Amino acid sequence: MLNSAKNNKLIRWLTYMMFLMFAMTTDAVGVIIPEIIKEYNLSLSQAGLFHYGPMTAIAFAGIFLGFLADRLGRKKAIVLGLGIFSVTSYLFAIGSSFAYFMVLMVATGIAIGIFKTAALALIGDISRSTREHTSTVNGVEAFFGVGAIIGPLFVTYLIHQGVAWKWLYVAAGVLCTILVITAFFVNYPKTTVAEDKPADFKSAIKMLNNPYALLFSFGAFLYVSAEAAIYVWMPTYLMGYSGSAVLLFTYSLTIFFVLRAAGRFLGMWMMGHFSWSKIMVLFSGAIMVCFYCSITFGKEVAVYLLPLTGLFMSVIYPTINSKGISCFPKNQHGTIAGVILFFTAGGAAVGPLVMALVSDHYGGDAKYGFIVATVFAGILFLGFLYNLIAAPVEHRLREIEASEYKPA
User: Among the four residues 3, 244, 292, 325, which has the most C-beta atoms within 10 Å?
Assistant: First the structure.
């Protein structure tokens, strides 16, 4: 039997690998879409369902099924989600139609919504303070960032070898199966269940009346919308660039993902040593300035500043997620994680769409979409600035710290 320290370490690594695994699939969609357009003769909007479909499924699974982590316990919810993901991933090997693959993509989204909310709730169970919680979530999202690099590279390799893209999902299924088996040998902390009011999907709806849930969810929506401007529309905005930084232009998206992942590993340390409120103001302000300068001074400046935002974006979402979850008792962590996930996936779907509509209105120039993204970043900065000055979240975190977290 593993001792407590080794057990918690293994739980952390299992969580890291879960996030790496599903990032491999979700963030590889951009490379897969051109292939399915050719294979099935689809329009852009039809092929885009490969992105919007699972994102919508993740969103609704988060808000309607996130409570499972609080009601069933973290281990059962994680195994359930991973089990669905594993079976669905293997099924990619035997199908060939676009409709068949779309059903599987939606199923993987539901599975991700279940095990991601449970994994985030689990982090609260093994954390000794809200500060440690934030540091751990940054580590989890760092591994997500690594998966976001591995997935597209793996699909690109498969395509160059003449192998179908769908084998990415089979590979993810194998990794998922290993995680499920390993989970059976780990002792998960006991989940405190509210016996008088068992968690259900109504709990998530009611939670939207809580100002902390609503504000952190809105913050997640704003951040993800701004982030999506980079990985969805940056290549379009920079299209036609012919300046001196051609190499930087060619690998701009890869550089963004690498900086985002590296920044999250750095964030594990930063969040343990510095004020999270000050870091959020500094980094969200830097994103806003990078966006503003990129649309004001054009592609010659944007080719440098837009990839650089990966470094500043790195700690924003993990910290929003962590502090939002930490504002609630541990027996509600699955439910609040699901609520934030709903707005996260909503931002990933709605944000790029709004930017596209605005750009189309002005003749198809992606610059106007980035103006929208700058507004998103600006509102996010003002929110963090208010939090730094008025400190409403700090008061709430001190209350939760005293009642929910007991140092080892």
Answer: 325
CA atoms within 13 A on the CB side of 282: 10
Contact 32, 132 (CB under 8 A): no
Contacts of 97 (CB under 8 A, 6+ apart): none
- Cβ neighbors of 299 (< 8 A, separation 6 or more) are 237, 238, 240, 241, 243
User: Cα separation of 386 and 268, whole Å?
Assistant: 24
DSSP character at residue 94: G
Q: What is the rounded distance in angstroms from the CA atom of residue 26 to the CA atom of residue 140? A: 16
**In a 10 Å sphere around its CB, with 0-12 CB exposed, 13-18 middle and 19+ buried, how is residue 4 labelled?**
exposed
pTM: 0.85
Do 387 and 318 form a contact (C-beta atoms < 8 A)?
A: no
Residue 286 is assigned to a structural domain of this protein:
yes
* Domain region containing 280: 4-187+199-404
Q: What does the pLDDT look like over 96-155, one tens digit per residue?
A: 999 999 999 999 999 999 999 999 888 888 888 888 888 889 899 899 989 988 998 898
Q: How many residues does the chain have?
A: 408
189: nearest Cα among 401, 12, 343, 339:
12
In the chain, the number of structural domains is: 1
406 — pLDDT class (breaks 50, 70, 90): low
* Cβ–Cβ < 8 Å for 59, 349: yes
Using the structure block, give the residue that is written with the tokens 């000794």. 128
Q: Which H or E run includes 278?
A: helix 276-297
Measured between alpha carbons, how far is 306 from 290 in angstroms, rounded to an integer?
A: 7
Domain containing 204 — which CATH number? 1.20.1250.20
Smallest Cα–Cα separation from 377: which of 289, 297, 260?
A: 289
